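Thread: "does anyone have the structure for this chain?"

Original post by V.I.:
We have the sequence but no experimental structure in hand. Need at least a predicted one for the grant figures.
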Amino acid sequence: MQRGCSPVNHIAPVRVAAVGCGYWGPNVIRNLSEVPGFELAWVCDADPARLAPVATRYPTTRATTRIDDIFADPTVHAVYIATPVSSHYRFVKRALDFGKHVLVEKPLATTVERAEELAEIARARGLTLLVGHTFVFSPPVRKVKELIDSGMLGPIYYVETTRVNLGLFQKDVSVLWDLGPHDVSILNYWLNEVPTHVSARGRSYVGEALEDVAFLTLEYPSGILAQLQISWLAPSKLRRTSIVGRQKMIVYDDLEPVEKVKIYDRGVDRQPASFGEFQLTYRSGDILSPRLDTTEPLRIECEHFLECIRTGRTPDASPQSGVDVVRVIHAAERSLRTGGSPQPVYEPVAAMEPTP
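Reply from O.Q.:
Generated one for you, tokens below.
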């Protein structure tokens, strides 16, 4: 039974509570507090030391170390959750049980079954469940999506991504679960499809069990291949993606200060030669950088969360997209355990937590 949450109308502010004041949480909390239409009602963290600076910044907002205080408040309409990955399922389920709309950081859950359960609960109760795949709301990523959908690249051959840095090492999940969801969610969003198979190799060089470096190959139904490199153990920070199409190519570099997206009029063409043979000719044309919106992705994400709550619209980072990402990461994890053999994404799997 849905409990404890008063109805949301289009005039009164949506009262939102934020759970998790660690590394990423304060950034989203800032945006939730600034979006017209939201009212930041509570901030929560089990660690008083992390909670204190956030509570000080928002003196009119109630602060607590007990998440039950938030669930028990019938005036709270929505909850933002930025807690350790292993707690996502438990907290999201409780929030939905109390009739709260939820924005939860990625991944949605640590098993396919649990992710699907949360998606079904939200659907059955008519609640918004938005997964924090923040890059889906990034203007450069959205511009690339627009360019792909326009057909200007022609058929896409392959995509190559690099997401590496020195840290931040996580204690409860491997690099697959920490960094992997970023690029998987971006690729699924761009290509509008989910991989059929995943192969992965990785190693734990610093920790005892959790992989800190991994290389993934995703095979999409359309024939597109995607190669992902993710690492917490690299000499410099890189966030770079290359998309190679028949007509044009795109490089998206999230660390570029201005020209984050570049379109290359480059490629290889087959030209008829003598006696029915063909020869390859190389095309090297202009390099263009489209104008990009400069709005902070988190701002767009929070505004989108509010819109979905008020209109019932399916979020761009929907529960199903969250389930799909969890499926891909699980397939990658199975591949790691089998020496890198390709693993199907859509195959019934036993519930399995990330390797402790």
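V.I.: this helps a lot. The first helix runs from residue 25 to 34.
O.Q.: and The domain at 136-298+326-344 is CATH 3.30.360.10 (Dihydrodipicolinate Reductase; domain 2).
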